[in-house]
Design brief:
Chains A, B: One of its GO terms (molecular function) is DNA binding. 2 copies of one chain form a homodimer. The first copy, chain A, is built from 8 helices and 6 strands; from the N terminus they run H-H-H-E-E-H-E-H-E-H-E-H-E-H. By secondary structure, chain A is of the alpha/beta class.
């Protein structure tokens, strides 16, 4: 096997380690890249190297950016006194796509887990407590996933914040927009019924 | 939006253009890459730039390699007098994984298509005819996909080769290994029955 073939093999193996890609789809993707090596593959390699060299976690909220402090934390207009707590940067991106929240974030980087030895320190919960005083926070919105781990973590944070006197809220649970009742799980139906509102 | 955020957005958009990845899975992949930017993203960018700069089509068979002539064509042990005609490099890779064919390949780069204005010249069929004389070919194995376009192309090549006196064969059609009859389409059952063999 020549060096060139080995490089292509190594590229396929590396691509196959991305989430959502297996060996088969990695082969397809690499073949597509090689066919479009000037228009697609070379620019992709360049921008990937660029992001790999410049990306870093915001030292305040854990969001991904290129500076010590991310663009959201650095924006004074977003110091609204609200902090939205999310598990992961992907959730932060999802919230931003919603364009409904104008405050700042705090990325936990996971959920509490006794099994995986993830404790409050790993989730930057002490840093969250520090920020509440420093940034004059009045409301912490818990936007954690509606899983057992997510909700356990939410309860832990709510308790940790009790002494600070800050208001703690969480995202509403109920029927998703466009959702059909027949396709919803029992838990969602129950939660939506319990939290019913005057029409 | 900062330059860093724009770079990340551009990376997501470029990744989303790969086959098998959409906007959502591209976001997940990029986030995964950023989290493992030293261990995964930087090496991936390096190897991708390397392959983008060095990959090229073999001038003889159309396979992808790094030299004027690919590793298979350059290997004298593979001059067996057999040429396997495939539609695409992905099919060549599939044949190589099978480890059953020891001859050389000819990659068409597609199938004949009146609608897309793909004619014999686009598929390097004249080059295939040249190779038969040059390389002392005795058998051409048509390993085209069992689709209408693939089979139309196979018939065209078989006719074009008639005058050359070379033996033209095609892959057997029938029940796949591990296949259950109940899940096979009618055409496959019919083909397998017509081509039945003494047990």
């Amino acid at each position: 096997m020549s060096q060139g073939t080995r490089d292509i093999e190594a590229l396929i193996e590396t691509m196959a380690r991305l989430p959502g890609l297996g060996p088969r789809s990695a082969r397809r993707a690499v073949l597509h890249l090689i066919k479009k090596r000037t228009a697609l593959m070379a620019p992709l390699a360049t921008i990937m190297a660029h992001v790999a060299a410049s990306a870093r976690e915001c030292s305040r909220c854990g969001n991904i950016g290129t500076e010590e402090i991310c663009a959201i934390c650095a924006n004074p207009a977003r110091q609204t006194g609200e902090i939205c707590v999310v598990e992961d940067v992907a959730d932060l991106w999802a919230m931003e796509r919603g364009q409904a929240f104008r405050g700042r974030y705090h990325v936990l980087g996971g959920t509490l887990s006794a099994l995986d030895a993830v404790g409050p320190d790993e989730l930057h919960i002490p840093r969250l407590l520090d920020r509440i005083a420093e940034e004059g926070v009045t409301e912490v919105i818990l936007a954690l996933n509606a899983t057992v781990d997510g909700q356990t973590t939410a309860h832990y944070i709510a308790e940790a914040l009790e002494a600070s006197g800050v208001q703690v809220t969480s995202l509403a649970q109920g029927v998703p927009i466009g959702g059909e009742l027949d396709y919803l799980d029992d838990g969602t139906i129950q939660a939506a019924l319990r939290a019913r509102k005057r029409f």
